[in-house]
Amino acid sequence: MLQRVDKWLGMSGMSRSEARRCVAAGRVTRGGEVVRDAGLRVEAEELRLDGAPVRAEEQLYVMVNKPAGVVTATEDSRLPTVMDLLPKAMRRKGMGPVGRLDRDVTGLVLMTTDGELAHRLISPKRKAEKAYIAACEGTLDEGDVRAFAQGLALSDFTAKPARLEILASGREGSTARVTLTEGKFHQVKRMFAAVGHPLRSLSRERIGCVRLDPALEAGQYRALKADEIAGLKAQVGL
Ligand code: URA
Predict the structure, then answer these.
(1) How does DSSP assign 28-44, residue by residue?
(2) Model pLDDT, residue 1
(3) What global pTM score does this model have?
(4) Every domain range in the chain assigned CATH 3.30.70.1560
(5) Which of 54, 107, 159, 163 could join 179 via S-S bond, C-beta 3.0 to 4.6 A?
(6) Could you give the percent of the chain with pLDDT greater than 70?
(7) How far apart are CA 208 and CA 15, in angstroms?
(8) Mean pLDDT in order along the chain per 10 residues (238 residues)
(9) According to the model, what pLDDT value does residue 135 have?
């Protein structure tokens, strides 16, 4: 099958921009000749990187329903990771989570070998939405909705405008859906704390067009469907 050089290299575990850098540095050859054009369409078997054949494997795209207590990393010396939730055959080089959820946060984590897609989904520039269900202390009201919509000033940055939909609110506590396009460290927790409603729990339900499958119990995974993969790629310009 003919495909672009940068796509084949991407399928071997590196991001599309790393692939272009390899080409620019003259590290990629075809039939003994240095490849100068990352967009050249070739067969995978023709390519060499630093003299070694390029092993382009089918990309993996998976969703995981992360339970609390599991870290969003490929390895950890003490704690279980999202990688441990996958079968051995999927735990290959280049496979990893798209962005991070805190250890106590549950719900949707996407995992893929497609470095370029992962990079674009977490880049604030691409504006891929992430939606969470949050349970917090106190009574959320329209003032909080406006504060989220205006962009909240936190101690070290101002959060971009976010959508807050109140699902239930009362003196006993409130629940809301919050949708945002960035994902800085503890961002959602910090936004709720900034409006005086510390979080009790947080769960991610959606990234871009992909929703957490309600059939997945905590700790389970499933491969993304072709339309989910195509939808995610289209949203970030791939
Ligand atoms: N916001 C948080 O505070 N934590 C997460 O894990 C994700 C978003």
Answers:
(1) EEETTEEP--TT-EE-G
(2) 83
(3) 0.84
(4) 130-207
(5) 163
(6) 100
(7) 20
(8) 88 81 95 94 92 86 98 97 95 92 98 92 91 98 98 94 97 97 94 98 98 98 97 94
(9) 98
Q: Atom 8, ligand 1: which residue's CA is nearest?
A: 188
The answer to whether the Cα torsion of 146, 157, 133, 216 is positive or negative is: positive
Ligand 1 center to 71 CA (angstroms): 12
Q: Could you count the other beta carbons within 10 Å of the beta carbon of residue 207?
A: 24
| Per CATH, domain 61-125+209-235 is 3.30.70.580 | yes
pLDDT of residue 93: 82
From ligand 1's centre to the CA of 94, what distance in Å?
24
Question: Residues with catalytic annotation?
Answer: 102
Alpha carbon distance 191, 221 (integer Å): 29
**Which residue intervals of the chain bear CATH 3.10.290.10?**
3-53
Q: Is 188 in the pocket of ligand 1 (CB under 6 A)?
A: yes
Residue the block writes with tokens 């494997």 = 57
Q: Cβ(182) to ligand 1 under 6 A? A: no
Give, as one character, the DSSP assignment of residue 1.
-
118 phi and psi, to 5 degrees?
-60, -45
Q: Where exactly does CATH 3.30.70.580 map onto the chain?
A: 61-125+209-235
Q: Which CATH superfamily is domain 3-53 in?
A: RNA-binding S4 domain (3.10.290.10)
